[in-house]
C-alpha cells in the first residue's frame, strides 16, 4: 500500500492552479509511458478533467525496475512528488515523482484500449472501459454538466422538480412502442374463459409497462403547483436502429400552467441557451478534445444559437419551403406526412442555418393531448430542430377543453375511461397549459458533435443490445 495518506489532489485542480507548487499526491491511470534507462515520462489521467499531467520518474526510485518500467497504458498508480512549473513545451506543470505505488497493471496483450485510433463502434463493444478514454470521459463530464445546468435553470425559474412514475398503465404517446412489465409466467400464461391473457392475475391487476413519457403526471402536478419538470429515464421499444434512437433515454419534461404555445417556445429557447452558455463557459477542455477528435466544430453553431433567435416556422410553411427548394429527398414531402430526419436537417442546417421551431402540425401526426387549432386540421405542437441531429424537443400546448379532448381520445382509438383522471383535470379547474420533452442524448449529440446517441450515454440500450 502507499506509504503516506496525504490527501489526493485532482489533476483538474492542478491545471486550474488550485494546488500550490511543492509536495503533491495524485492517483489515476497511465495513458502512456515513454521510457529511457534514466527516466520514465508518464502521462497520467484521473478523470477529473480533460487534461492529463506529465510525471517524471527517475530510475533511482527503488521500484523502478520492478514496477515503474513495466507500466503500460491502463495501469493504475498513486504518485507522490513535487509539483513544479514544467520547463517543457505544451504543459504548465509536471510532477517529479518521489514515490510511485502501482495499484494494478494492465496487461498490454489483453487490455483493449490501445493508443491507436479506435472507432466508436469498437468502443461501444467495450463500453465498460469508455470512461477511460479522453473522448468519452469528456462526453460524460459534459453530460453531467448539462444535467446540472438544466436543474439549475429550472430551479432559478421557479420550477419544482417532480418525479413521475416509471411503471405505468398508459401508453401516453399512443405509439404502441412500450416495454411490457409483468410477473405472469411466460411459459403458462393464465387465460380468461374467452382465451385472452388474464391480466387480473398480473402484478398490478392490469397490463403495465415502462413509461414512454412522464407528461400526463407532470400535467397533473402543474395544475396545482404551477411550474414543474421531470428529469428521468424513458423507455421506448421502437425498433429503429438509427443514430437518434435509444430504447432507454433520458427526457426532461417541463410542464407549465397558464403557458400557451408561444410561452412554451420561449422557454425552450431560454433553456437551450442557458445550457449552451454553461457548457461553453465550463467545459472548454473537453469540448476542444472532442472537436479535435471528430473534426466537427460544434462551437460555431453553439455560439450561433446564443446570438441568433431561434427560427419559428409553421409546419405548412416548412412543407412549402421543402417543396420549393429543388432538392430531391429520399422521402417525398407532402402536407400531412411527417417530416423525416432529412427534411428536418435540411430546414435547420441548410435553409435557416439556425435552431428551428416548427409548430402547428397536422393533428393526424401528433398525440391526442395537443390543443386543436380552429382550422380543424392542425394542433399546437412544436418541435425544435437542431443542426446535426434534427428533432431535439417535442412539445405542445395541451388540449384543455374537456369535450374536444374526449373527442380526440376517441378519434385516436383510445378509451376515455382509461384516461378518466386525465380528463378530470379539465373538469375540475382546468387551465391553458403547455410543456415539452427534451431528449438529453439528442441535445448532447448536438452539443458535442458525437454523431450518435449511443456515444453520449454511458451504457446504451438499443434493439438487440442490453449489455453491461
Ligand atoms: O417528441 P416526443 O415523443 O414527446 C413526448 O414524449 C412528449 N410527451 C413530451 C412532452 O411534451 N412532455 O419525445 C420528446 C423528445 C424528442 O424530441 C427526442 O429528443 C427525445 O424525446 N426522444 C428520443 N431520444 C432518444 N431515443 C428515442 N427513442 C427518443 N424518442 C424521443
Ligand atoms: Mg416528437
Helix content: 25-40%
Order of helices and strands: HEEEEEHHEEEEHEEHHHEHHEEEHHEH
Beta strand count? 16
Q: Supply the helix-strand structural class.
A: alpha+beta
Q: What is bound: which ligands?
A: 4-amino-1,4-dioxobutan-2-aminium adenosine-5'-monophosphate, magnesium ion
The span between the termini is 30 Å
Shape: elongated
**Which architecture of the largest domain would the CATH scheme give at its second level?**
2-Layer Sandwich
If you had to describe this structure to a student in words, what would you say it looks like?
With 468 residues, this protein is of the alpha+beta class. The protein contains twelve helices and 16 strands. It has helices at 11-15, 120-125, 134-156, 215-225, 261-282, 284-294, 298-307, 315-324, 341-351, 402-411, 420-427, 440-448; strands spanning 22-35, 39-45, 53-58, 76-85, 93-104, 160-161, 167-168, 180-181, 208-210, 227-235, 248-257, 311-314, 356-362, 378-386, 390-397, 433-439. The strands form three sheets. Strands 6-10-11-16-15-14-13-12 form an eight-stranded mixed beta sheet, with helices on both faces. It has a five-stranded mixed barrel with strand order 1-2-3-5-4. A hairpin with a 3-residue loop joins strand 14 and strand 15 (390-397). Helix 3 (134-156) packs across helix 6 and helix 5 (261-282) packs across helix 7. The longest helix is centred in the N-terminal third of the chain and has 23 residues, at 134-156. It is elongated. The structure holds 4-amino-1,4-dioxobutan-2-aminium adenosine-5'-monophosphate (4AD) and magnesium ion (MG). The site of 4-amino-1,4-dioxobutan-2-aminium adenosine-5'-monophosphate (4AD) has 23 residues, from strand 11, strand 15, strand 16 and helix 12.
